[in-house]
Amino acid sequence: MTHSAYSPRPQRTGFLVAMVGPAGAGKNQLMNDVINRYQGQMPVVRQFPTATTRPIREYEQDGREHHFVSVERFKHMIAHNELIEYQQVHGTERYYGMPRETLELGLEAGEVLIADIEYLGALRVKELYPDHVITVFIMPPSVSALIERMRIRNTEDETEISKRLLRVPAEVNFASQCDYLIINDAFDYAARLLNGVIAGEINRRNKQSILASTMLGKFEYIVRVVAVGSDNQVLNTSDLTTASAPLNYGTPPFEVAVALARSAFEANLDVSRMVTGDRKPDDEYIPPMQLTYERLDKGERIYFTYGYRTTPVEQPSPAQPVDVSSRG
């Protein structure tokens, strides 16, 4: 049975990765692999310590994997609304629960929290925090693999193993409700999949901040027109920006250049005196004669530079007829 008496607050930027699956599926090993990959990076990726009354295992540390508490202390936490959800599992005095304050502080700090959570608890916390919880089901390759893995880790006796197996059908049925499913048949491959899931979720939830941290988030296009001579060489090299204007998305740069030239040079503009780049056949786009860029401390400027001939190109004089009647 699962219980809850808490409604989540808004304004959270972190998320919880609820690792779900049968005992022996390899959830904790995969979780530790991901945490090690992100060590020292941002955002913080760490294990979310749930509360439990089960005995601590040799390799565990109180406050890291779980908060190991007595049954009396756990019931005190229930009575004082310190848990988001809790369960009594395996028909014993063994309880698991999610401390409210620990989760709230992690989500509000923008952390990625990862926890091995019973499927009923994962279902409940997903209902409470639909935008801040992703569920990842770790599927073993077979039931026999579960038995062997539990025997190898030597944390359960045969009685406990057989009891845990009774939960497998219900746990496997929950897999279709999870956001992601990873079959842990080959550990390295499963670890890469889990790492990809978390990296993708971080990227999806932080698109704006990631974009703002790159140069692509801080650039502008500028159209400018410079005076050129009849030989298409730029005049007044000390003042290349004879006329310039920002280029708005969807506006052809040549259109802006013509308007600038009309303003800077002459209203009755002869468009044939505009100098451009090589235009491809059957392409309406008219490229600039120069495409340059400038790197700044806070971004980039990309310049589409067109030229305008201030004087018409002199046409060669027509050839004069030659009188050949006097030639021998």
Q: Could you provide a short overview of the structure?
A:
With 328 residues, this protein is α/β, with parallel strands linked by helices. The chain is built from ten helices and 15 strands.
Shape: elongated
**CATH H-level homologous superfamily name of the largest domain:** P-loop containing nucleotide triphosphate hydrolases
Number of helical regions: 10
Query: What is the count of structural domains?
Result: 2
Detailed description of the structure:
This protein is of the alpha/beta class and 328 residues long. It has 2 domains: 2-212, P-loop containing nucleotide triphosphate hydrolases (Rossmann fold, 3-Layer(aba) Sandwich), CATH 3.40.50.300; 215-309, no CATH class. The protein has helices at residues 27-37, 71-79, 100-108, 119-128, 143-153, 158-165, 168-173, 187-205, 207-212, 253-264; strands spanning 2-3, 15-20, 45-47, 50-52, 66-68, 83-89, 94-99, 112-116, 133-139, 180-183, 219-228, 243-246, 274-275, 290-296, 299-309. It has a 5-stranded mixed beta sheet, with helices on both faces. The protein has a 5-stranded parallel beta sheet with strand order 3-8-2-9-10, sandwiched between helices. α1 (27-37) packs across α8 (187-205).
